[in-house]
Design a protein that fits this description.
Blueprint (H helix, E strand, L loop, with lengths): L3 E10 L2 E8 L3 E12 L6 E8 L6 E7 L8 E5 L2 E3 L15 E5 L2 E9 L3 E6 L2 E9 L6 E9 L3 H9 L10 H13 L9
Antiparallel strand pairs: 1-2, 1-12, 2-3, 3-4, 4-5, 5-6, 6-7, 8-9, 9-10, 10-11, 11-12
């Protein structure tokens, strides 16, 4: 597919945060966040993000945290295979802090454009840009996607799953916030143990 565009609208149900919409060529897609009971070890909710769609691969992202799913303490699975996520948490620029991961013979790079502005998922020959803005159909915010290149269902699914994950750590402002948090609360990392 080349030059595909789509919109996923936000909606929420009891205990869930979600996005759903029609992605031409791939059918209806829904991304859901489900909270489970608090972990007695960490003291936070267990959060699971799942992507659903008839033509989409099975993707699951699990984490422990107080609000939105984060990159810390996470487990990422594609079609049942565990995928390792990595990013340079010492880098200053958003492009240098990009999240990288591989699945089978594909290498992906996920870059946050700016705080709450959007993101880019790329692999050789494919670029998917997702931005946020006012919904075209109703009140609330939507995620707007633009696909360039020969993307398949896996590419689109990967770009969409991160819409419900807090990726602030991949931004310069996330770096500054983390440094300030460590200065003001140097023992914060010990709370989960």
């Amino acid at each position: 597919m080349t030059e595909l565009q789509f919109e996923l609208q936000s909606f929420s149900r009891r205990e869930k945060g979600s996005r759903k919409g029609l992605v031409n060529g791939f059918g209806e897609v829904t991304v859901t966040v489900k909270r489970r009971k608090r972990s007695t070890r960490a003291g936070f909710d267990q959060l699971t993000v799942r992507l659903h769609g008839e033509q989409m691969p099975a993707i699951e992202y699990c984490t422990v945290g107080p609000q939105r799913p984060t990159l810390k303490n996470s487990r990422f699975r594609i079609n049942g295979h565990v995928v390792q996520l990595a990013f340079n948490d010492k880098a200053f620029r958003n492009t240098s802090r990009a999240l990288t991961f591989s699945y089978h013979d594909r290498s992906y790079r996920y870059t946050v454009i700016g705080f709450e502005k959007g993101s880019k998922l790329s692999r050789p020959g494919v670029l998917i840009t997702v931005t946020r803005g006012n919904s075209t159909l109703r009140k609330g915010m939507s995620s707007f996607g633009a696909v360039t290149g020969d993307a398949d269902a896996l590419d689109v699914a990967l770009a969409l799953i991160f819409e419900e994950i807090n990726t602030t750590e991949l931004t310069t402002s996330g770096l500054v916030s983390d440094v300030l948090n460590r200065i003001l609360n140097p023992r914060a990392d010990e709370l989960g143990e």
